[in-house]
Amino acid sequence: RSSDLAYKEQIKRECVLTATSILNNPIVKSRYEQYAKGENPFEIVEPSEEAQVVVEESNEQTEEANEQNEEANEEVEENEETIEEDITDPNDFTADITSTDEN
Fold first, then answer.
1. Measured between alpha carbons, how far is 44 from 30 in angstroms, rounded to an integer?
2. pLDDT in tens, 47-97
3. DSSP 45
4. What is the pTM of this model?
């Protein structure tokens, strides 16, 4: 009995994930928006208009990804500077293991 309930819950979760994935598709999303406006989403339109919508959405996603990459690069550069400062500390008088020769 509990296994049946667990199975049903698993199916529900998978259905929600599938529906979310479908609705997040740029083409499906643009057609849904047309439907919500009362337009026929299956009406044949010039390919350039539909492509324009998809390209605009793609450009927005690319810009967001670029911003995230820039932020990550800035963090990496800051970490590299900190590491370089630690390595080239002029007040570090500890012996370098590779430079000492005890033979």
1. 14
2. 566 666 666 777 677 777 777 777 777 776 776 666 555 555 556 556 555
3. -
4. 0.35
